[in-house]
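Contributing new records

If you add data, match the layout below exactly. Sequence lines come first and carry their own label; structure lines follow with theirs. Keep one chain per record. Anything else will be rejected by the validation script.
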Amino acid sequence: MALKVKILKDDRKILAQGMLDGAVPFHFEDSGDRWRVRIGKNWHHTGFERHVIGQPNLADARQKIYRAIARFRNECKPTMA
């Protein structure tokens, strides 16, 4: 997996934008209790964290990014002919 992103963090949100595998656009936004990721033009996922209060955590955001990429790769596998 090759992921190049720029991560921006403020008190309320973590944003990550970049490229996956050098060609697929990647966008991630984490508000702590709600996060969403868009990979490519058509794939997206939104997650909710009920127990999270306050500002988002960078370590948790990275784990969410890695899980989202794994889910994307699993759902978008090319079919073997």
